[in-house]
Amino acid sequence: MKKAEAKWGVLLALSGILGFILWNFGPMVASFVLAFTDWSLAGTPKFIGLTNFKELFVDFIFKKSLWVTFYFGIGSVIASGITAFLTALLLNQSIRLKSLFRTLFFLPAIVPAIANAVIWLWLFNPTFGLLNSLLQRLRFPTLNWIYDEYQVIPSLILMSAWQMGYIMVIFLAGLQGVPQQLYEAVEVSGGNWWHKFRYITIPMMTPTFFFQTVIGLIWALQGFVQPYVMTAGGPNYASTFIVFYIYQNAFRYGKMGYACGISIIFFLIVLGLTLILFKTSSFWVYYEAERGR
Amino acid sequence: MIRRKRKEFIKRLLLYVVIFLSSIIFALPFAWLVRSSFMETGQIFILPPEWIPKPFRWQNYPEALSVYPFGRYFLNNLTIVFLAELGTIITSTIAAFAFSRLRWKGRDTIFIILLTSLMVPYAVTLIPTFILWKTLKSIDTYRPLIVPAWFGGGMFNIFLLRQFFLTIPYELDEAAYIDGASPLQIIWRIIIPLSKPAILTIAIFTFMGVWGDVLGPVVYLNSPEKYTLAIGLANFVTTYVGQWNYLMAASLIVALPPLILFFIGQRFFVQGITLTGLRG
């Protein structure tokens, strides 16, 4: 039985293991190797040592794309995190029609990214968009939104905050998991809503916040639809996200080796960032079991 | 006493006002898309926005479908989604079973190694994967978009199903083994019937992911007749700038299937997100 079970185990897990080797591990290794070559798909890859990385080091579009990708990624995690937390707090109250409200908040997250892009092309349109008409109404100066070098990333962050539905659902589950006795304990000792919020809700939510920061960041750093459909990476490369730049190099300019170099650096940065987040988590994440010892 | 009640009432009223207004902010842009899809282009951009289409142009839909082959793209999308769904559901169920209910050497180590793939951005593996498909002469076919789904369907799905399978009592398997059942029979007769919510969840996630995917089709498909809705729409945005009413109708055609699916399976969807703390 034991032996048969082991055989079945390996056999049934095979699809997952092969999938990992074929679509993850293998391509990763290949990316590392190709990053040291010059290859335009036609012909054979030519080994050129560190040339790609030296070139990247002085490639101002690459440096700019790193900067805007992280600017957007971090901004988006913060903005959508705060939006999601506030809406989750609202939905955590005892209210009627809760599932209706939840659906409305969640709506932007279900609509495919491409359709959202169409909607926001209108919202951001400087001449007939809704946002500028609102600003005009309120007698504020109008903006150029995604058509301005310095406004494009804040605009895209705003758009990402609007699509925070998934995070909201995760936060809501976290809020519902906070033990009710803790709140009662605060009430007994005469605390008000602020004490409950500051000393119970926030600490109990930190594991959820932490997890969401890591996952959300990895997710946000991979933006592609925004530059591809909405901005073409502009103006002046101000929204050339790294994935878009990889795509351009590989599939528009045919620079496969160079594109692999970019993706390797991108991967190492994401990995480093994740490790830093995990290393520092003990400073700000409260784990019940750990303190309880 | 009365004063306290009044204070309570005002507080609740305020809560409803806040939640109502903020939910409108979230839903309004989509409502705008819906009403625009029934309007003439001229009326779409009147400011302040008008909410009743006049005249009511339902013809935008058939016309958008004929100006640009969105009908064709719709079928292409369905083909890809169906085959990818099938592969994901079958192989991720089987793999998750192996990682949760069978004991074999190295299982947990391998599982953790496989989990690291969740941290690898898609773009990092994109180029070598593209080259692999090119050497297999599969560029401009649906294979690159479908075949990977048949290899475990991605770690996220295996992870989600595994978490769910772990909650099913092992005694059920044991009893079946004593009756001489094989692992495959156990999956079919015990695990699948008890895991319908979890399987539906990954089915919904997979649908959302594949249906709206832009990068994959953009990289792998060249012939216009093979395009998916997402690329069709992306090209439409850049080529038919003037025809906003068609653009809106086409956007809604893209958005509708995920929305319908969400409304049907909302419960499973929310469950799935909370079970793993991840998004699809």
What can you see in these coordinates?
The complex is a heterodimer of chains A (293) and B (280). Chain A is 74% helix and 3% strand. Chain A is mainly alpha-helical and 293 residues long. Chain A has a single domain, classed as Orthogonal Bundle (MetI-like fold), CATH 1.10.3720. Chain A has a two-stranded antiparallel sheet with strand order 1-2. Chain A is globular, with a radius of gyration of 24 Å. Chain A starts with a helix and ends with a helix. Chain B has 280 residues and is mostly helical. The model of chain B has no long low-confidence stretch (mean pLDDT 86). The N and C termini of chain B lie far apart (50 Å). Chain B has helices spanning 2-36, 41-44, 60-67, 70-100, 107-115, 122-135, 143-146, 155-165, 171-178, 183-194, 196-211, 215-220, 229-239, 244-276. Classes of the chains: A mainly alpha (293), B mainly alpha (280). Chains A and B meet through helix 1, helix 3, helix 4, helix 5 and helix 8 of A and helix 1, helix 4, helix 5, helix 6 and helix 12 of B.
How are the SSEs ordered, and which strands pair?
The complex is a heterodimer of chains A (293) and B (280).
Chain A: H1 2-34, E1 37-40, E2 42-47, H2 51-58, H3 60-91, H4 98-110, H5 113-124, H6 130-137, H7 152-162, H8 165-176, H9 180-188, H10 193-220, H11 225-231, H12 242-252, H13 256-284, H14 288-292
Antiparallel strand pairs in A: 1-2
Chain B: H1 2-36, H2 41-44, H3 60-67, H4 70-100, H5 107-115, H6 122-135, H7 143-146, H8 155-165, H9 171-178, H10 183-194, H11 196-211, H12 215-220, H13 229-239, H14 244-276
Helix pairs in contact in B: 3-14, 4-8, 4-11, 11-14, 13-14
